[in-house]
Structures are given as structure tokens and as C-alpha cells.
């Protein structure tokens, strides 16, 4: 399984090379092999007697972070969706994206996403899951911003990034809590020790943190605002990431952790409430939209809300309906996105107000859209899979036996009505989508292009998906026992195989479906009268506004704070750095009791010659501050340098003394050369405060150095390592001068780099002088 | 003796920092030179001063001065020489191009 997860990523490295031949063969043709291969590999596991298994690969065992890939029913369903829809999307993109686009970028991002998504689904290790999770956010960011010359694309990409990464980080917090409490990093082990989690005081916090990750990723209310803006991505991406796979990662996460949290009553309330609110709100918002992809985006949000709500219910029926709807949603929504892309491609617009009567021009697309939209609306016809899962959803809403808590019980009573209410709007926008585009009067003069049917290759992918809609609709039990029951079982262990039937008898669920269709039809037929209400609510008070304001304010204040200290004055920067050094050094010296060990036992004798040299040097150093003549300044500095070489002689360092003498002499010569060119020193006319602050900083640093030196000198924590060099200088290095042996033998590489540094400095000096000469010559 | 040398290097550091905080390029360079002098003295002191003979192997000598700080300082002297010369040429060029050696006047047009 490691291969399956990593192969898209590995293949991505070769995509840029392949795409050089994109004029001859579309890059997508090569990429197609990858998801198809993964799909074929995983499809063999489908079957009635499928049993979960795990493949383990060590990565960082010391931190408990390993590539443990666990395949159970739930992950199998998702893996098949990722690879299956992935194959169709790549196929579709071959016809959708022109070879003049930057194909290599597109496919590299897409393959990166594929790897990341497979990693999220298959990882049993929470931290590996988190890593892949963020990688999906990043690849989604890159894909939304694919047409980065458009302002809206960049805006959408940033928005999705900020919101999903925010959620991802809070999820990481929750995962860390979980792994600390249970002392494991494996999700399965966490489920086994769920009692510890449920008894933990941090349970509400953990749940909120993890749900934040899931809700932001799956665009749940109020974090749904990023998904409509993500529609700036190329349509294959919208169909793939923002409808079929990535946005379901949040669903997956909730499903994966629901065995743990389900025993906690607030899990039901939070997840169902958010899910139902999302369902109602987004399907209401979808009716307001005029852009085809925006309709589909809000519709996706509302369907995700519905799945989320079902996971919140957590009953056997609801969980089964949830996994069934995950599959169905991928088929009908994927095909609808592709058809929206086709319409955009063939007519040049996605504005539903300009479209109409396209049935005669695009009969194939119209037929496909018919199946897609009617399935999405949940029209009770035996060949539409959307109806089955919607019916199961209604049924599950009527069987919620919540008694634990009065609030939850009241809420459970309202749920069926809310579900019907939201579904009515689902019906309305589905009809609006189909009839608005393909029926009604033709408005050819409004279209930028003359419409015609799409090439067969482009239709191929939606055809496959619509065939899926019909086949699952006609024979729902093909996928039931082999795939869906296994998937539902990994969420709720009590799920058993039940045959899915079209006709249940006159149960409440069927009546609810009929009510949806009935009221929906009335609302759709009178849609013009309702327009006014749609445009009034929600008005200005939207979460988009809030998001924009937050970003704007953050941006402004960040700039202001940065401008406050980034003034362009190096002196100010130096002062801040030095001040920090002084403050922290003193703090550490005081807190670690650095002054208490000072001893005066082990010191060398003081002779008059040492004192003389030292006093001269100190005076010279102090003089450098007060001298205002540059020649004097240079010579006084020279005194300090030559003083140092005398000290080296006294302290028995002949090599140092020699080197220092030579270097000091050459430096003096250099200074005097530069002296000729540099302007004369000016008298300092700075204010007293400036001088005082400079003086404080310099005295502070000087004191710190002396203090640290004295404290370090008095310490005897470590044995000296110098004896090693003294003992082995001759036997290993073959030299009598120990210092030289250290430099050229023991630390030879250091010396090599030292020479390199000098070489670079020499080159830079040469360039600094040479470039000027060329310029003057011109 | 060690503590006196450490006080000297403290003085060297203090004067160096004071020079670095000035506006004129030449003073800043002088400051960096003084800093490296101060640092060399600190490193040398860490190996204790005036113990034994110079670190050149000889059969008649039993105790040597610590050779390790000396090796470090030797490297450092050469590097700081490189830096000083680079800074000198750099400031010479900068002063030529901008007709000023005042850091405050080299901040560019706007302070963004």
C-alpha cells in the first residue's frame, strides 16, 4: 500500500519531463495510468468477505510515527472514490485543458493531491494523517490558484488555505491531546482505549478541536465560505477536490473518530446541528446563485452537511445512509461538475441567466445532466441512486431515539422537519440547474460562443459517472454487501447487511420524499415570485464579510507593527539586538546562579609588563571613541592590535603573535589605503540621550562579556579536551608544533573552509573594485 | 591575571559596541576590529594563561600551554582579517557611490 500512496508523488517528478512533448501527446495521457492502476489494485478487495488488514512501515519509530496503512471498509470506499474519480477527472482534463496551458504544473499538483488524499485515508497513525491532511490543503491551494493571473483565483486560493489550515492546526491540537491521553499514535489503538478518552476532563476540548478540522475541511457552516470561492479552479479540480474527495476528508475524519466520540452526547448535538444547519443554509443559498459552478458549490456544501448530520445521528441506518450518500454524491455531483465545465467550454459562459434552451444544441450533455440533477434532487425513480440515500436519510431522521438529554431530544424531534425543509431547496436548485440551462427560451445572442455538443472524449467521464448513477439506482445491492456494509461497519460496529429496496411501503420517509417533490415543484414553478426574498436574505450580514474584514484588519495591523520597528535604521536594529542580549544574558546569569561559583584560587601571576600593556590597550580602546581625526583613529586602533600581539607573546602563543603581527601590519596598510578615499570624521553632534543609550548598551555588553568570562573560567564542569591534542600531536599528526598540527591535520576541513572564506572575500573585494572601473570606462 | 585580561576584553567590547553604534562607516569598521580583539582575548583566557611552555613539543618539557584556544584564535584572526578588508573595500565603494559615509543617509528613499 505504501507504493500505492507514494507512486503519484514519485510519478509527479517525471511529469515536467514528459510535458515537454505536450504538443504531440497530451501530458494527461501518461498521468492517466497512475489513478487507473491504483483503482485496479484496490478494486480486487471488494467483496462480501472483505476483511480489514494493515501494512506497517517504520518511519520514525522513536516518536511513534510510522507509515501504518490500514485498509478497512471505510478507507476502501474512499480509496476507490479517489482513484476512480481521479481516473475520470484526468481523462476529462485531457480534453478540458488546452496544451497551451501549463500542464506540468496542473498534473504535478493533481498527483501530489492524490498521494496526500490516499495518505489521509489510509494512515492509521494520527501524525502521518495530519501531515497528509495539510498536504491536501496545500495542493488544493495550488490548484485553486492554478490560473494565478486572475485576482479571484488568488483570493479563493488564499481563503481556502487560511480556513483549512486553521482547522488543520486545531485538529493537530486535538490529535496531540488524544495521543497523550491514550499514549499511542494509532487510531485503532485509540478506539480500543476509548474509555480513557471519554473519562478525560479534556473531552469537550478535544472534540471541538478535532471537529474544527473536520468542519473547515468539509466546508460546514460557518466555514463553508471558502468552497464557493474555490470554484475559480479549473473544473476538473472542482469536480475532483471540491466535490468528490478532498471536502469529504472532514466527513472521513468524523466517521473515523465517531466510534470514540459517539458515546458522548454532545457529539450528536454538535455534529447533527452543524450538519443540518449547513444542509438548510447552503441549499437555500444555492438557489440564489447565478453561476453554474456556484450553484454546484453550495449544493456540495449542503450535501456534505447532510452526510455530516447522518454521521452525527450515528444510528445504524444513518451511518449506512451516510456511506451510501458519499458514494452517490461523488457520482452525480462529479458528473454535474463536468457538465458545467462542458457548458462553460462550449458556450463561453457559466452564467445561468445567459443560458437556456441548450437541449437542441447539446442533447448528450442535457441527458446526462437530467440524470445528475434528478438524482441530486432525490426524485423517486428506481434508476436514480440519489433517491435511495435521500430516502434512507429521511428514514434515519425519523428513528432517532434520543432520551439522554432534553435539549437533544427536542432537537431530535425537529430534525425531520429541517431535513425536509433543506431538501425542498435542494429540489428547487436541481430543477433550476437543469431547466434553466437546457430548457426555456434560447438566448444565443447573449452567449460569447455558438454552442455545440462537446467532443465524445469530454463526455466520456460524465457518461461513466451517470452510468454509475443508473446502475447503482437499478441494482443498489451490487455495492451494498460488497462495499457499503463494510464501510458502515467500520463506523458503527452494529451495522448488518440489509438489502436496499426501492419500495418501502407508505412509510413516513416516503411521504417526506413526496412532500419535498410536491412543495419543491410549486416553489420552482413560482420561483420568479420568490426572487425578492432570495435577494433580501441574508443581505449584508454574511460570513464572507467577516472573513474579509478579519483579513483586512490583520493585514493592516501587521503592517503597522512591522513598520514600527523596521525603520530602515541599522543602528536601531543593532540596539534592539544588543538590548535583548544584555537582558537575556543577565536574566539567565541571575536565574541559574552563575555568579556564585567565582573563585580566585587558580589564577596566573600578574607582572608589571602585563599591566603596562593592558593599560595602554585599554586607554587606546577608549580613545577610539573620542578621537575625531581619522588618521589618529586608525593608528590608535593599530596600538590595540599590536598590544594584542605582545599579550600573545606573554601568554606563550608564538604562532598567534606572529600571525597577529603580520595581519595587523597588512590591516594598517589597508586602512591607510582606504583612508585616502574615506571622508574625514565629523564631530559627533548627537543628543545626550543618544550618547547615553549608546553608552549603556556598550557598557552592558562589556560587563556581560567580563561576567560570562569570569563565570566560565571559574567553572570546572568539564574535563579539558586539550590533553588529547598534546598527546597525539606527534603520533597522529607527525608534527612538533601542536597548534599547527591541530589546524592542518586534526581540523583540516575547518582550515580548508577558512581558506574558502578568505577566497570569497578576496573575490568580493576584487569585484567591488573591478566593477567600478568598468563603469567608469563606459 | 585572567580576570584582568577579561576586564580588558570587556573594555574592548564596550568601546567596540560604542563605535558600531555610530553613523560613520570607518568607526563601524574599527568597532568590528575591536570586537574580534576582545573575542580573541576571551577565548585565550578560557584555556588558562601562563601555564607551561609554548605548545611546541620538546622532550625536555612536561607541561604545555593549552593549544586548542590558540588554534581557534589563529583561524579567527585570519577570518577577521578577511572581514575587515572586505568591509573596508565595501565602505569605500559605498561612500564613493553615495557620496556619504553616514549610515542614516543610506536608508533608501522610503522606510518601508
TrEMBL record, chain A:
Q: Which Gene Ontology terms of cellular component type are present? A: plasma membrane
One GO term of the biological process aspect: sodium ion transport
Q: Where in the cell does this protein reside?
A: Cell membrane; Membrane
* Bilayer-crossing regions: 6-21, 28-47, 67-94, 106-122, 128-148, 160-182, 202-227, 266-287, 355-379, 414-435, 456-475, 509-527, 570-588, 608-626, 633-651, 657-676, 688-712, 751-769
Topology in the lipid bilayer: Multi-pass membrane protein
- The MrpA C-terminal/MbhD domain, residue ranges: 615-680
Give residue ranges for domain NADH:quinone oxidoreductase/Mrp antiporter transmembrane: 123-408
Q: Which residues form the NADH-Ubiquinone oxidoreductase (complex I) chain 5 N-terminal domain?
A: 60-107
- Which GO molecular-function terms appear in the entry? antiporter activity
Q: Which Pfam families match?
A: MbhD, MbhE, Proton_antipo_M, Proton_antipo_N
The residue ranges of the MrpA C-terminal/MbhE domain are 694-770
Keyword annotations of the record: Antiport, Cell membrane, Hydrogen ion transport, Ion transport, Membrane, Sodium, Sodium transport, Transmembrane, Transmembrane helix, Transport
Keyword Thylakoid part of the UniProt annotation: no
PANTHER family on file: NA(+)/H(+) ANTIPORTER SUBUNIT, NA(+)_H(+) ANTIPORTER SUBUNIT A
Family stated for the protein in its record: Belongs to the CPA3 antiporters (TC 2.A.63) subunit A family.
Protein's name in the database: Na(+)/H(+) antiporter subunit A
- Native species of this protein? Ornithinibacillus bavariensis
Q: Which gene encodes it?
A: mrpA
From TrEMBL, chain B:
Q: Which gene encodes it?
A: mrpC
Which key words are in the record? Cell membrane, Membrane, Transmembrane, Transmembrane helix
What the entry lists under Pfam families is as follows: Oxidored_q2 (PF00420)
Q: Say yes or no: keyword Hydrolase present.
A: no
The record's InterPro entries line, in alphabetical order, gives: CPA3_antiporter_subunitC, NUOK/Mnh_C1-like
Provide the transmembrane region boundaries: 6-21, 28-47, 67-90
Protein's name in the database = Na(+)/H(+) antiporter subunit C
Q: Name one GO cellular component term.
A: plasma membrane
Q: Which family is annotated?
A: Belongs to the CPA3 antiporters (TC 2.A.63) subunit C family.
Instruction: Give the chief site where it resides.
Output: membrane
Q: Where in the cell is it found?
A: Cell membrane
Gene3D superfamilies from the UniProt entry: 1.10.287.3510
Bilayer topology annotation = Multi-pass membrane protein
Q: Does the keyword Transmembrane apply?
A: yes
**Mind giving the lineage of the organism this protein is from?**
Bacteria, Bacillati, Bacillota, Bacilli, Bacillales
